[in-house]
UniProtKB/TrEMBL annotation:
This is Pyridoxal phosphate homeostasis protein. It comes from Youngiibacter fragilis 232.1. Pyridoxal 5'-phosphate (PLP)-binding protein, which is involved in PLP homeostasis. InterPro entries: Ala_racemase_N, PLP-binding_barrel, PyrdxlP_homeostasis. The modification N6-(pyridoxal phosphate)lysine is found at residue 27. Belongs to the pyridoxal phosphate-binding protein YggS/PROSC family.
């Protein structure tokens, strides 16, 4: 297993474009599996659940950057603020206000990505495209949140169908880049997973989230397959 992870990471790295961040999606994986990836030089790890991230965090070195890539409930905000390097799933006003409140309590600024439901799928989280402007305006007004870019999980489809969604995300990213402010920047475009990260990079992704492509097929009894 350890050697498989090392070889898989080598294959993924061989495909990475310059300047693209690789996040190893370690959800449902053991801390030892994550440590094997860490030992190859990976420092960015993605988790879906707050509790799982908090359990693994003390088992890995302090220089790991933990990305919360799953949906975040407002009642879990107090646990994640100050613990996650980057929250990928800011998708609604009440969550933004909860992060702002908790960050203010801790006298810190929390880095977030706005998650967009670019395919308008009922089964997926993310702000719908028509609600993006209002959420962005709210985020700009909050002193303890720093928006660093966008995230999306696109609908499953053919390579060309995927490409169209990635292009729409990149266009949205570029449009918002013209409206940047001190706490609202378009630096990170988080899109692309195991089956489509190469296409995502071709269309402008700056961060890809790879789980099964690194750790192998996931035991479906240990968690869902979102975000990897």
């Amino acid at each position: 297993m350890e050697q498989d992870i090392i070889e898989n990471i080598g294959r993924v790295r061989a495909c990475l474009r310059e300047g693209v961040t690789l996040v190893a999606v370690s959800k449902t994986r053991t801390a030892q599996e994550a440590k094997t990836a860490y030992d190859t030089g990976i420092r960015d790890f993605g988790e879906n659940r707050v509790q799982e991230m908090l359990e693994k965090k003390p088992m890995l070195p302090d220089d790991v950057r933990w990305h919360l890539i799953g949906s975040l409930q407002t009642n879990k905000v107090r646990k994640v603020v100050g613990e996650a390097y980057l929250i990928h799933s800011l998708d609604r006003p009440e969550l933004a206000l909860a992060i702002e409140k908790e960050s203010a309590k801790k006298d810190m600024v929390t880095d977030c990505l706005i998650e967009i439901n670019i395919g308008c799928e009922e089964s997926k989280s993310g702000v719908l495209p028509e609600g993006l402007d209002d959420l962005a305006e709210l985020a700009r007004s909050l002193a303890h949140i720093r928006i660093r870019g966008l995230m999306a999980i696109i609908p499953r489809g053919t390579t060309e169908e995927n490409r169209e969604y990635f292009r729409r995300m990149k266009q949205t990213f570029d449009d918002l880049k013209r409206k940047e402010s001190e706490n609202f920047r378009m630096e990170i475009l988080s899109m692309g997973m195991t089956n489509d990260y190469v296409t995502a990079m071709e269309e402008g992704s700056t961060l890809v989230r790879v789980g099964e492509g690194i750790f192998g097929e996931r035991d479906k009894n240990r968690g869902g397959n979102k975000n990897g």
